[in-house]
């Protein structure tokens, strides 16, 4: 496995691979990799001849009161995991190279960045769209693999690729979960033993709501939201930031069950913010 740190070296390598007729699969990450990330690498190997993984903790997607400085990092451990999983290249750019002192160009996906997490994390998705656009220009992938745990990010990146004509196909991968259904996340490491036990109820609330929906126990989206909030209110350690149901295609509001929907939520367990979602398939009238 090759490690590349220079932007120009990465671009040169990608150009060389393109000239050789190789298809590039790309997995952008912020590091501190867990099984969810590694599953993306597995999927990437099915699509491309060469798998490139980036590790970059992107400062522009963190707010002023968020956890950039305490975001977990373990580059050596990450590289070991990626090597064992079959990644071909790890791209480790420096922040000063990605964001020069005179950097002033940002990408915004206007409507998709507004709902859900966008309400509570100003400029977060501007930072996400910008770094992904830059990485696409540097790595020049044919395929880019994203997990669906952050469903809003997944939909937003697909829209950006469509709008800006990036020659890359976005592949979504279902959320990888622990045995108790908690979505795998680097931020789970922030949880104490007691908080980790509590966090499983967050995942359980969305699972139960989705199961009850399939069983026909709800008449409208607001009933599902009320159920999830009521379930979570049993646990004083969980503070709900939002529970919403939106159109799975474009994150617009829904009034009935005639379209595929995403049941999305963000909560705080202690000081740790967790997100999760479940897809609810449409029902014919």
Structure overview:
- The chain is of the alpha/beta class.
- It folds into 2 domains: about 1-175, Rossmann fold (3-Layer(aba) Sandwich); about 185-280, Pantoate--beta-alanine Ligase, Chain: A,domain 2 (2-Layer Sandwich).
- It is about 40% helix and about 20% strand.
- It has helices spanning about 5-20, 35-45, 75-85, 95-100, 115-120, 125-140, 150-165, 195-215, 220-230; strands at about 1-5, 25-30, 50-55, 90, 145, 170-175, 240-245, 260-270, 270-280.
- The strands form 2 sheets. It has a 6-stranded parallel sheet with strand order 1-4-3-2-5-6, with helices on both faces. A 3-stranded antiparallel sheet has the order 7-8-9, with helices on one face.
- The longest helix is centred in the C-terminal third of the chain and has 22 residues, at about 195-215.
- The protein starts with a strand and ends in a 5-residue tail after the last strand.
- The model has no long low-confidence stretch (mean pLDDT about 95).
